[in-house]
Amino acid sequence: MNKNPGENDDAQIRQLQETVAHLTRLTEELNEVIARQDGEIARLTRRVDMLWRHAAEQQADAESGAIPLADQRPPHW
Questions:
Q1: Which residues contact 35 (CB under 8 A, 6 or more apart)?
Q2: What is the mean pLDDT of the chain?
Q3: Alpha helices in the chain (DSSP H)
Q4: How far is it, in rounded angstroms, from Cα 44 to Cα 25?
Q5: 8 A C-beta contact, residue 72 and residue 61
Q6: Looking at residues 43-53, what average pLDDT do you find?
Q7: Tell me, what's the pLDDT at 56?
Q8: Residue 19 · residue 26 · CB < 8 Å
Q9: Is the pLDDT of residue 70 over 90?
Q10: If we measure between CA atoms, which residue out of 21, 23, 17, 1 comes closest to residue 9?
Q11: Cα separation of 14 and 9, whole Å?
């Protein structure tokens, strides 16, 4: 014979509660990962912008006839 129908309902409710708790924890963990990645993307974007500006300045200096910094002798020579 089957168990008491109420017991089956309780087991299903318990299973659903466990599933919801697991999904809630997973969602919070994924949110933390996304927030961390957002900060990293912002930092890397700033760094790339800085490198682009630096490269543009070097190209402008090279085009103006200045000696590129990499080809200049150090001041102690």
A1: none
A2: 86
A3: 5-63
A4: 29
A5: no
A6: 95
A7: 86
A8: no
A9: no
A10: 17
A11: 9
Q: State how far the Cα of 52 lies from the Cα of 2, in Å rounded to an integer.
A: 72
Q: What is the pLDDT of residues 14-37, one digit of tens each?
A: 999 999 999 999 999 999 999 999
**Amino acid at the residue 45:** T
Give whichever of 22-26, 58-62, 65-69 has the largest mean pLDDT.
22-26
Both tokens of residue 41?
């993307």
32, two tokens: 């933390």
pTM, 2 dp? 0.59
Q: What is the pLDDT of residue 72?
A: 65
Retrieve residue 42's tokens.
């912002």
Give how far Cα 21 sits from Cα of 24, 45, 48, 67, Å.
Answer: 5, 36, 40, 64
| Residue 53 CA from chain centroid, whole number | 23
Measure the CA–CA gap between 24 and 19, rounded to whole angstroms.
8
